[in-house]
Write a structure and sequence with these properties.
heterodimer; A: 246 residues; alpha/beta; Rossmann fold; 2 domains; 6-stranded mixed sheet; 4-stranded antiparallel sheet; 9 helices; globular; B: 331 residues; mainly alpha; two-stranded antiparallel ribbon; two-stranded antiparallel sheet; 13 helices; binds adenosine-5'-triphosphate; binds magnesium ion
Chain lengths: 246, 331
């Protein structure tokens, strides 16, 4: 399987601050890819550039065969996104929200209704069907966000801090969803998180960002080896070494 | 354009389902019904007493500093002279006030509410162009405004015809249709202003305030400014004769004032509509005044510059909103 995402010198500057600094790496098809880094490292900026929400200052990226600068629409056609702090239309319930997105994604009406129902059950909101999203808790909204990112049945799924606000049961379910999509459907999954435990369990490969620069890239054993981590040393320790903290 | 219809449909239903919409719609409807009822009564009485020679202010403040003041028009003495224009003048004034408010109430948070909610990022991650989002939202708003206009016009004109018993001629229908069209454009302008401010300003509360300031400028500030600047450049001349002092306005005053206040969408709207609805006017020849009828064509020709400005303004505001939104960083 070849690369489905390829960053080529991808850079974003805000004045003097280089939020993403000449990043070059690839994400392979069907892989579960973790994008890690301290607060403000540039993870969200990278993701928003890949989806065409903010333009790169320099460099570009190829997503699913399309250049994000030249053909942003094609680049995001098969990409599902759970944005950081996603919000919904409070006056609508889960199904109505999802149906709107399904319509935007051009999902045929007949397929859409069924798919939305299944997604609602999948993220554990089955018993909240009549409830308007305005009355949702934070974690419930996050679950709905995950369902939203799957409405288009994307080839690439990008989740920006999907574990935010989600309870342990939801975390377990999400882990199973991510594994299932990757193994059974060959979906490529990129996610950012600060929960290293989950990274350790889930990710095929990881990129560690530090102030916009890629400080480490590879499988977890590779990353451990590069910093000469001792046998049984916690992944948190390894991560902090890449961050230059220890 | 993928996503356009979906966006327009959602926007339209969102708007008409809101309480604020129903509230302002109701207010507009009541105000228009009352003013057309009164206008109808006035029209009927002026028609029955043809010898009336009183000055008809027609909603205008003497001296003409009211928002609708239009000194370029011939002074009208009798209801039968200006016809529909005078009878419907308070409907026009009210529409320019409340119609503007309604359009602003609909559009002031179009984009920034999506940003605040955190749903704009999601929206933009779909394979649709940003064009579809601005166009869709704008057209959704336009449909809501059109719905309001159709209902208010039908009701208002219905009441007017009922009270006056006026028979609808082709000429009248044509004038009313143009009146309706221009009113739509007027609301579309305020819709675009709200849209633009919702794109530029991150907080809905700020964009609401800014929109209200623009609205106020349109109905009050710019016309007053026109008056003031006119006075400064061409002050009223005072001369003394045997009977006492007399005041003469210089013609430059009227021109400057008309140009500056005509920049306000509300004044432009009222000028255009009043001209279109003026069926006849007084013409002075040597020693006597005769009433001549004004055809729709002639009226249109007179207001052509204002009309072009009016439509141009709409296009310009929307274009700026569009350009800013399609280039904006969303995070
Ligand atoms: N609009 C902006 N103007 C200036 N700087 C910005 C802007 N948006 C983001 N930044 C800066 O870019 C850097 C990267 O931010 P980004 O949101 O990508 O971080 P992140 O890795 O997602 O962090 P977190 O883990 O907190 O979500 C930060 O230093 C941030 O302050
Ligand atoms: Mg982030």
């Amino acid at each position: 399987m070849g690369p489905i995402i390829e960053l080529k010198n991808l850079t974003k500057k805000y004045g003097n601050l280089v939020a993403v600094d000449h990043n070059n790496y690839q994400v392979m098809e069907g892989e579960i890819f973790g994008l890690l880094g301290h607060n403000g490292a540039g993870k969200t900026t990278t993701i928003l550039m890949l989806l065409g929400l903010i333009p790169p200052t320099e460099g570009t990226a190829i997503v699913d065969g399309a250049d994000i600068k030249e053909n942003p629409l094609q680049a995001r056609r098969n990409v599902g996104l759970l944005p950081e702090n996603a919000g919904f239309y409070d006056n609508l319930n889960a199904k109505q929200n999802l149906s709107f997105y399904a319509e935007l994604a051009d999902v045929p009406e007949k397929v859409a209704s069924d798919r939305c129902e299944k997604l609602i059950d999948m993220v554990g909101l089955g018993d909240k069907r009549p409830v308007k999203v305005g009355a949702y808790s934070r974690g419930m909204k996050q679950r709905l966000g995950i369902a939203q990112s799957l409405v288009r049945e994307p080839k690439v799924l990008i989740l920006d801090e999907p574990l935010q606000g989600i309870d342990p049961e939801g975390t377990r379910d999400l882990r199973e969803i991510i594994r299932g999509l990757s193994k059974e459907k060959g979906v490529t999954i990129i996610f950012t998180t600060h929960v290293l435990y989950e990274v350790n369990r889930l990710c095929d490969r990881v990129a560690i960002m530090k102030n916009g620069v890629i400080a480490g890239l590879g499988t977890i054993p590779e990353l451990r080896k590069q910093v000469n981590a001792a046998e049984g040393e916690d992944f948190e320790q390894v991560f902090l070494r890449y961050q230059g903290v220890v | 354009m993928a996503g356009f219809l979906t966006m327009a449909k959602k926007e339209f239903y969102d708007i008409i389902g809101e309480k604020k919409f129903l509230l302002i719609f109701g207010t507009l409807l009541i105000v228009i019904l009352v003013s057309t009822f009164q206008g109808g009564l006035q029209y009927s009485s002026s028609q029955s007493s043809t010898t009336t020679t009183t000055t008809m202010p027609g909603g205008q403040v003497p001296g003409g500093q009211g928002p609708g003041g239009n000194q370029t028009r011939p002074i009208q003495f009798m209801g039968s002279v200006s016809g529909l224009s005078q009878a419907l003048s308070s409907m026009v004034t009210n529409f320019s006030l409340v119609g503007g408010v309604l359009a602003i109430a609909i559009s002031f948070d179009t984009i920034n509410s999506e940003k605040q909610r955190g749903s704009l990022k999601t929206l933009l991650s779909y394979p649709i162009y940003r064009d579809s989002i601005v166009y869709g939202k704008y057209v959704g708003g336009l449909l809501a405004v059109a719905l309001v206009s159709v209902v208010t016009f039908m009701a208002g004109i219905g009441v007017f015809l009922g009270v006056t018993g006026l028979a609808l001629t082709m000429d009248t229908v044509l004038r009313l249709l143009i009146f309706f069209g221009v009113s739509l454009v007027y609301m579309a302008i305020f819709l675009a202003i709200g849209l633009l401010l919702s794109i530029v300003l991150p907080q809905p509360s700020t964009s609401l305030l800014a929109s209200m300031i623009v609205w106020l400028s349109s109905i009050q500030l710019i016309p007053n400014l026109g008056y003031a600047i006119g006075q400064i450049l061409y002050p009223v001349r005072m001369t003394f004769r045997e009977g006492g002092p007399s005041f003469t306005m210089q013609s430059g005053f009227t021109t400057i004032r008309a140009i500056i206040s005509g920049l306000s969408p509300s004044t432009a709207y009222e000028n255009i509509v009043n001209s279109i609805l003026t069926t006849s006017e007084l013409q002075f020849t040597s020693n006597q005044a005769t009433i001549v009828s004004v055809s729709v064509d002639k009226a249109l020709l007179t207001v052509a510059p204002s009309l072009i400005y009016f439509v141009g303004l709409l296009i310009a505001i929307f274009a700026v909103a569009y350009i800013i939104f399609t280039r904006q960083e969303i995070r």
